[in-house]
Design brief:
Shape: elongated
Largest sheet: none
Number of strands: 0
CATH architecture: Orthogonal Bundle
Number of helices: 11
Distance between the termini: 19 Å
Structural class: mainly alpha
Number of domains: 1
Oligomer: single chain
CATH superfamily: MetI-like
CATH topology: MetI-like fold
Strand content: under 5%
Helix content: over 70%
Low-confidence stretches: 251-255
Radius of gyration: 22 Å
Length: 255
Amino acid sequence: MKILGKLLQSRSLFGSLTILILWYVLHLAIGSKIIPSPFETIVTFLHLMTGPLLLHILTSVLRITAAIVFSMGIGIPLGLWMGLSKRADSFLSPIAYILYPIPKVAFLPLFMVLFGLGDSSKIILIISIIVFQIILAVRDGVKEIPQEYFYSVATLGLNRRQIYSNLVFPAVLPKIMSALRVSIGVSIATLFFSENYATTYGIGYFIMNCWVMVDYVEMFAGILAMSLMGTFIFKAVDWAERRFCPWIRKDSAVA
């Protein structure tokens, strides 16, 4: 009983069990092959992981990862510049405010014409979503630093590099992690949409192809794979936050 109690205290396990129970209840209530049982889906998922499904997952993960890396490479410098320079902020913020609310999937046909039908257009589409989150998060993080802190480090004789490494970056890193969490869900949904066009690999393509073939068990196995992929990315962000933002203390660790 003690072991069971400890397992139930795990947030991830508790959430997974809750979803599986609700899934099974829905399967019984619908009584149709449209919603297969969780057990059948998990068995099919494990079987497919030794075949084509793993390649679809890896393709999608690489696209998401590349988009995150490029977005950080673009968004962090721009956000720092806007946060530290009123002139840059007054010029770039209106542009960001106009472009940020636009549904980026509307640009997919344009990206496919400009950058081809391969991975590039899909990665750039995801970048167009994530980069604005990072830019604005970094800018706001810099602006939230009290001016007195800059005066204090100036009196210590720190150079520009030391000011960035000891004051600015520690202040904006938690903002970046929060921005990534907010944008990941939207990015995965956008990736699912983009992988239905001019591609034969990707978890989005796999799910829709199974739907067309009326194979609902494999379709739900693909949905399960997408959920696990998103969970993996979220866990990676949590790990990065613990690794690079050790001064942040959580009330309780996520299991």
